[in-house]
């Protein structure tokens, strides 16, 4: 098979790495890709939002299967464009990707179908939102309804903070049109857990659990980021939690989307909060999480093409989804100053130390080749250094050891990824 992956981050590098293991795949293309992906796939200079360019390329190269990694093109309808041309593509159609594209939609869906989530209200008018806050309990959470690179969530401890947050989202447009509508939500306490799943419109198969570290600095301090590290499985995702979620959240979400005339095919990411009242949905994503994909996919036993094809063809019930009885930890190496302001263009050294080491992965997120052919930094999150081990403590020790193999100016990371493992 000839396969095209659309995207340029660590998630897409993890997908390409899984594809490279498949006996069914002869040739991988990635649009636009990055310097790390280039070692496994032919990178083509087509941007993820250039739907015509992508479709034309897929037809010209006789691509057998296309995988959309990123949220923006999914929400904007790239799958619909591929399907119009009779091309096989993995990911939800536009009317299903709204599950991520509009937090207001997903909250209303959960309310309608009794899927456990936080109490909330949606607002597209700033004055109405401010009026609501006057009687709301603090702390409270404000969310831009649209896509905001995983950063459009504000946790406000006081009424003054919440009022300023509404201004930032709706008036200052910090996240652009994503803040045209906002969700004001009760503040939930508990442990966060991420659960990825494959879906074929009616059947859902759960992948291994994971746990993200969103804040920029150690001790969960600093600003929200796209994710500073991850581990899988989560020791807090117990059999009891799994049973509850299968009964009240996972299949219920798939059935709800089907009833709404929006059958979902692809990956649903469930962001869960394990509260005293049981698990509740924090958010949905309509694709692999990043860096969740970097700890979950290396542990998957199945051929990724078999599973993805089953999703597209509505045959997921025939797949026995299996994961290794091991663990994985990912530590993100970022550019100092991320997620606000940072310099890029610094040479990365030591990448060759990962070659030939089965338990270690270095997923590229923000990298490129400079004019002389050297790999340099090209983003806030630069690399996802990942290791698998017999258990979480083993994987964590190996991942942190491997962070010392690579270096670049302005290298920054958290030193407490997976520290929660010690408390489990």
From TrEMBL:
**Does the record carry Disulfide bond as a key word?**
no
Q: Does the keyword DNA repair apply?
A: no
Names of the cofactor(s): Mg(2+); Mn(2+)
Q: Which residues form the ATP-grasp domain?
A: 107-313
GO biological processes: 'de novo' IMP biosynthetic process; purine nucleobase biosynthetic process
Entry superkingdom: Bacteria
Q: What is its EC number?
A: 6.3.4.13
Write out the catalysed reaction. 5-phospho-beta-D-ribosylamine + glycine + ATP = N(1)-(5-phospho-beta-D-ribosyl)glycinamide + ADP + phosphate + H(+)
Q: Which Gene Ontology molecular function entries are recorded, alphabetically? A: ATP binding; metal ion binding; phosphoribosylamine-glycine ligase activity
Question: What's in the keyword line of the UniProt record?
Answer: ATP-binding, Ligase, Manganese, Metal-binding, Nucleotide-binding, Purine biosynthesis
Q: In which pathway does it act?
A: Purine metabolism; IMP biosynthesis via de novo pathway; N(1)-(5-phospho-D-ribosyl)glycinamide from 5-phospho-alpha-D-ribose 1-diphosphate: step 2/2
* InterPro entries reported for this sequence: ATP-grasp, ATP_grasp_subdomain_1, PreATP-grasp_dom_sf, PRibGlycinamid_synth_ATP-grasp, PRibGlycinamide_synth, PRibGlycinamide_synth_C-dom, PRibGlycinamide_synth_C_sf, PRibGlycinamide_synth_CS
One Pfam family recorded for the sequence: GARS_C
**What protein family is recorded?**
Belongs to the GARS family.
* Protein name per its UniProtKB record: Phosphoribosylamine--glycine ligase
Per the UniProt record, the source organism is: Lachnobacterium bovis DSM 14045
């Amino acid at each position: 098979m000839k396969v095209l992956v659309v995207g340029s981050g660590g998630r897409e590098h993890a997908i390409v790495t899984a594809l490279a293991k498949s006996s069914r795949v002869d040739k991988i293309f990635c649009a636009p890709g990055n310097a790390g992906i280039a070692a496994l796939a032919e990178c083509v200079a087509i941007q993820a939002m250039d739907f015509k360019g992508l479709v034309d390329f897929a037809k010209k190269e006789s691509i057998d299967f296309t995988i959309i990694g990123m949220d923006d093109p999914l929400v904007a309808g790239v799958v619909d464009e591929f399907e119009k041309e009779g091309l096989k593509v993995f990911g939800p159609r536009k009317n299903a990707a709204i599950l991520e594209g509009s937090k207001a939609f997903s909250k209303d869906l959960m309310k309608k179908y009794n899927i456990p989530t936080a109490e909330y209200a949606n607002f597209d008018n700033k004055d109405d939102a401010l009026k609501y806050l006057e009687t709301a309990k603090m702390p409270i959470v404000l969310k831009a309804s649209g896509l905001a690179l995983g950063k459009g969530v504000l946790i406000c401890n006081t009424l003054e903070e919440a009022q300023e947050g509404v201004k930032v989202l709706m008036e200052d447009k910090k996240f652009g049109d994503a803040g045209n509508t906002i969700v004001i939500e009760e503040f939930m306490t508990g442990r966060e857990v991420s659960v990825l799943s494959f879906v074929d419109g009616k059947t859902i198969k759960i992948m291994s659990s994971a746990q993200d570290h969103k804040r920029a600095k150690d001790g969960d301090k600093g600003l929200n980021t796209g994710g500073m590290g991850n581990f899988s499985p989560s020791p807090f995702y117990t059999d009891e939690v799994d049973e509850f979620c299968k009964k009240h959240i996972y299949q219920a979400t798939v059935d709800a989307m089907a009833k709404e005339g929006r059958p979902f095919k692809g990956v649903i990411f469930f962001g869960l909060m394990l509260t005293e009242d049981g698990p509740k949905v924090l958010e949905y994503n309509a694709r692999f999480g990043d860096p969740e994909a970097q700890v979950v996919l290396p542990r998957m036993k199945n051929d990724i093409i078999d599973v993805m094809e089953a999703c597209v063809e509505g045959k997921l019930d025939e797949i026995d989804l299996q994961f290794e009885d091991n663990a994985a930890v990912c530590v993100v190496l970022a550019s100092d100053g991320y997620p606000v302001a940072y310099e890029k263009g610094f040479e990365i050294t030591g990448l060759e130390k990962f070659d030939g080491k089965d338990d270690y992965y270095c997923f590229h997120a923000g990298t490129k080749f400079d004019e002389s052919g050297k790999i340099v930094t090209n983003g806030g999150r630069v690399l996802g250094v990942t290791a698998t081990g017999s258990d979480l403590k083993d994987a964590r020790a190996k991942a942190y050891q491997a962070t010392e193999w690579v270096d670049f100016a302005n290298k920054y990371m958290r030193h407490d990824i997976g520290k929660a493992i010690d408390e489990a």
